[in-house]
């Protein structure tokens, strides 16, 4: 059963052109999108979320994205953009609570919403920062707040654009493990290939806006990576590996 | 309307006035009810008047009259003739017809004393120096000048106009009247202004408070100007 | 806090009913006094409260919607385009009841123009919107200047109308404005959660299930309609819409639930106070234009806040 | 492009010397015509060019310095605080040659106040600065309103003065303004590279070796002085300072080398054209306030640009 | 000869406190700063650049930072902040040229400046984007433009706050190799420890605003990293390694 189905997707902007013939993603899959800078990873996410409008069909559970009203979309998928901002002096707690918006009944958050937010704050190691203003955080702390907001949305599909950017190794591991242990579908551009290989099941390799390969973990060969990134890749050399304590 | 105060006084109707705006000096017994531009509605209501005399401030006056249920009289004369017409209309409203007849007659008398002017001067009237504004043909001053035997340079069909100094030069006026008063408080004498170097004109300073209000004073102004024109041509 | 402020507000309302150019004995008024109190004073006090709330509310919404700390009824062109209609109506000597209607009309035309100009390919860009608004403001002001210039007989009416104030109030106008305010407040309060999300970048906001463009449009249209109604009845009262939302954000936080409420309440409080002062500050019945007092009262308070709590104003 | 524009500008200058209420034969003028041409027309045309350049230049600098597309002589409080002095001088009936001096004085006081308010712990925050400026603007406007109200007799003088125009031009004033403009232009042009860097975040700018606070201060002070000098001589001519820099950015790119030059040139061009129109549009010597024409001419052009080239305006 | 010398540096902000007793960094050293989110890495860089004002002494070549005028500082060090922005529509070329500002003679850029910028554009794989507006780039492309600007400054000390964030693996390698091959001192907070270990000589480990250790590559033991990050670290497990082609 395909949860997300992309057919014949085309999008162009100036001299960049994204083209995807056919991708199906099943419920619960963890999909990493790999590719160089400018290969179209963020653009693809934005297309999948309906933030950009391309040609072709994108459908969730056999329903075309076009036909899904805005407020229903937020119950289908959530998005962590590559860069995000908060322009008013909201505090951490408030920003995380924003994530409950799609579930808010009427016009205020229920106690349930608040309890869930609390849990997210705890999971992302933010409890001690809850009253701090968002703008007064370090880069990694801001990123975690935004991640907490996204996870708080509890959508079955989670789009994360480079979720570990600015995060230290411990929080990176915590978050990937957290995601790995849950049922949600995760689709995420990642630059750290070793991390991707460890935590994701499936890999979409993009190059110049085209799908170079759509493979599972054991098919992710050095040759394929070489082709994707134009770098030499060897396998199995010594390095540190990290494990969440 | 401050200009109408003089008329009311001359019609012996001072005691009928219950309220006045802040820059009316006549009628010490009347209560002040704010400025003529923004009168105080509560105070006016408390005075419960039957008639409101106003000049041009149509917007507020209509609303106000509706609210306090009084009759409205617009005092807006643009010529000497209209001053007299409106005087008699006003007199009718306040039942002072006899006084009005006398007053109007007295004004006609003044005009009869005018000397004929052969060599009619072309006149321009400065209202403010900065920004330079001059009187237009709808200003009472235009009619005063004409009646006194001058040629009022037609600057435009308005009460006052922002004006271009070079247009003044081009019109070659013989007489440049400049008023001094609250509107033009400390103008530099035009004769000393660099821009009028080439102007072959006489300059006459007048008092704004005397000249700008259209009431019985206007007729005296005609006489004064006429005398000046007469002396000037000799 | 909320309760305390409401209490202060109610006391202020009551007190300012007793302040004015004629002294009124509240317990045994004479018939004329009764008439002044109920027919003039009370509706005026209530009207100033309603208008203050309208302006505060619109500013609160504008700043968030346009993501600019200077967004208010001026920079969005709403105030001037509404004023334009009123000025033309006054200058042309149209019947009085038409003045607010025409003001509302030009206000809505201005609104529509700004909205059209700020939309390309179906997307609204807040920077474009505020630039279009500010140009609309300048063009409308220029036409107003022209009217002042051209209709010299109406100059003083125009100038003083523009300065703003609660000149002639009747229960009908009051009811109309109160209904508009109530409608707008309920609408915004019902969207407070959504409005909060506009503080996020567009993509995040959108992915939380709000149609950013539509929300912006609705917020902009309703806020502008508020301003148009307020301006058409009272002339231009600046400051409230710009400063009050900043003040309440700095005192009570950014959450729009609170900001909408406190912006309205503080706006109302400020205008009631300012109008009471404008009625009574000059002995002898002369009234100061209320905008002057609003600006002085509000300005000093704002500069004080700017000195003491600046980190809570904008961008953290 | 630059050369073409300069050529157009020179032609416009020459042509507008021949436009006005009196027709002048440029080849064999009568003595009166000569006098009008050299004593009145020419200095006025040059004056409008100089003032236009001053306003355009100040706006170009403000927008970058305060990082806000709405920053101009109004939102920084410069125009109103200068106008305040002039209005008071007119209302109190001080000798006319003092008017520009007093305007300059209050302009500088306003500038100093805004500057003081926007500085905490030695750091200047652009948002605080523009908020302080906008409040200064509102408070000064309120006092101006008060003057209009209180000095009823001067109302029309004040209103007309505020609408802007080239009232009394002589070679002395012209020289003064031209010198101020030249000084400011050279100063800014000498800092064009540094000003560019203000488009970066503060840390990047600072690490490139510029003292961001000092640069902001200098830019703000000089731009405000420009506005104060311009306003004190000509009243409030809006629009030029806000719109012209956006127009030149959209046409000629963001680089401040270009933007300073084109903002000045286009500002001058706009005001020369607007003044020529204001002198000649009503036959018979009456003048339209120049601000009205500026806003209409500029407004239409700007809205056209906003439709066609919006991506080049702000934030890409 | 110590090029950079920090003594008794103290800085506090709300409940965060940074304290550094003594660090000396010699000319040409490549120093990575490792530490969790919020441990004070960016704050330290800002202190070293004089963007924040703490207590204690910071001196460059025995001259106190306080005494070095602003414009001289730009010839001593350059900085890539963790996040940067360009608010006006400047194009890539112009932004990179900004980096030459400290060397501009008078008020315009010399041909030399332009040539150097050209070279930076080439080195950072930006030639094809040179006329593009900065705001119309992908995340990694923006980062490269900013890196090009910083390198264009040609300062002897380069502070790079997470230079590889948003960069793909090829560009990461290119940049680290570029830096490794040059004489400049590089001081850089980095989250990818394997990369850091490979390209840097010396490691400052920060925790809660304090210097946990100041070590060279071979002293960077799993135990130390465990202490720094609170994660289990093992050494020598298989992983991909990447080499610039
Ligand atoms: N503007 C600010 N106001 C108040 N506290 C701040 C501010 N910026 C950062 N902090 C706090 O200072 C501490 C150090 O922040 P810093 O940015 O130096 O961390 P960092 O090591 O760079 O983290 P990261 O890896 O997330 O970038 C953190 O606890 C952070 O919450
Ligand atoms: N606003 C924009 N306008 C024009 N072109 C853009 C814009 N944003 C991105 N691009 C171009 O579109 C292409 C794809 O960009 P995209 O952001 O999807 O890349 P990406 O794979 O996410 O890269 P990165 O790893 O750097 O985030 C790039 O060539 C980029 O230059
Ligand atoms: Mg991307
Ligand atoms: Mg950091």
TrEMBL record, chains A, E:
Function: Part of the ABC transporter complex HmuTUV involved in hemin import. Responsible for energy coupling to the transport system.
Name of the molecule in the record: Iron complex transport system ATP-binding protein
Domain ABC transporter: 4-233
Protein origin, superkingdom: Bacteria
The species this protein was found in: Malonomonas rubra DSM 5091
GO molecular function (one): ATP hydrolysis activity
Entry keyword set: ATP-binding, Nucleotide-binding, Translocase, Transport
One Pfam short name: ABC_tran
InterPro entries the record matches: AAA+_ATPase, ABC_transporter-like_ATP-bd, ABC_transporter-like_CS, P-loop_NTPase
Gene3D superfamilies: P-loop containing nucleotide triphosphate hydrolases
UniProtKB/TrEMBL annotation, chains C, D:
Gene Ontology CC, one term: plasma membrane
Metal-binding listed as a keyword: no
Main location: membrane
A GO biological-process term: siderophore-iron import into cell
Membrane-traversing stretches: 44-62, 98-117, 129-151, 171-188, 218-244, 256-274, 286-306
Record keywords, A-Z: Cell membrane, Membrane, Transmembrane, Transmembrane helix, Transport
Localisation per UniProt entry: Cell membrane
InterPro entries named in the record: ABC_BtuC-like (IPR037294), ABC_transptr_permease_BtuC (IPR000522)
Family indicated by similarity: Belongs to the binding-protein-dependent transport system permease family. FecCD subfamily.
Protein's name according to its UniProt entry: Iron complex transport system permease protein
Organism: Malonomonas rubra DSM 5091
